[in-house]
Amino acid sequence: MKHRVAGRKLGRTAMHRVAVLRNLSTELFRHERIRTTLMKAKELRPFAEKLITLSKRETLHARRLVLRDIHDGEVVSKMFDTISSRYAQRPGGYTRIVKLGPRRGDNAEMALIELVDAETKSAAAGDAAEIAGKGKGKAKAEPKAKKAEKAEKAAKPPRDKDEAAAKKSARGKGAAKPKTQSKGKAKSSAATRKVGKSGS
């Protein structure tokens, strides 16, 4: 029977395993969202949530208990100042695990573990950025359409000009031939005159 074997060893000794959970929880409270393997995330969840429950007491003894696992003073002050007030009315369930699929290389199952309200704030910020991006996209799309129309209009006259220039050049070539012929005739008439004078 599987009695008294709760928890995952994560391929580590007891001291190493506790050190990993302490480091992961420190980074989770600092960034409010981290990416790790699914098994580590499942082990981290109860460890981190107990620390959040301790931080909600806001006593010196609770702060010392949290400092036993979180060795970064800035993170501990953030827990007691910000995170504890954020979850004052929440009885539990401070974290969320989102599966990300297998990792490329060793095919380990990856997951995203995050604080619950941090995700809603980031989602709101993402929605606001998306709305702003859509507004900017529309604003940018209109000038692009206008620029495209102007480019098309500007592209058409040169073609007409090219055609007109080609026609003019064709006409010019046709008109130039008689001029050359007239010059030739003038030269021939001048030659005949000289010949006539010499002959006379």
Instruction: Please give the oligomerization state of what you see.
Output: single chain
* Alpha carbon gap, first and last residue: 144 Å
What name does the CATH topology of the domain at 14-131 carry?
Answer: 50s Ribosomal Protein L17, Chain: A
Order of helices and strands: HEHHHEEH
Identify the CATH class of the domain at 14-131: Alpha Beta
Given helix and strand content, the structural type is mainly alpha
Fraction in beta strands: 5-15%
Shape designation:
elongated
| Largest beta-sheet details | 3 strands, antiparallel
Count of individual helical segments: 5
Tags for this entry?
mainly alpha; three-stranded antiparallel β-sheet; 200 residues; 50s Ribosomal Protein L17, Chain: A; elongated
Mind explaining what this structure looks like?
By secondary structure, the protein is mainly alpha-helical. It has a domain at 14-131: Ribosomal protein L17 (50s Ribosomal Protein L17, Chain: A, Alpha-Beta Complex). Helix content is 72%, strand content 10%. It has five helices and three strands; from the N terminus they run αβαααββα. A three-stranded antiparallel β-sheet has the order 1-3-2. A hairpin with a 6-residue loop joins strand 2 and strand 3. Helix 1 crosses helix 2 (38-55). The protein is elongated, with a radius of gyration of 42 Å. The termini are far apart. The model has no long low-confidence stretch (mean pLDDT 79).
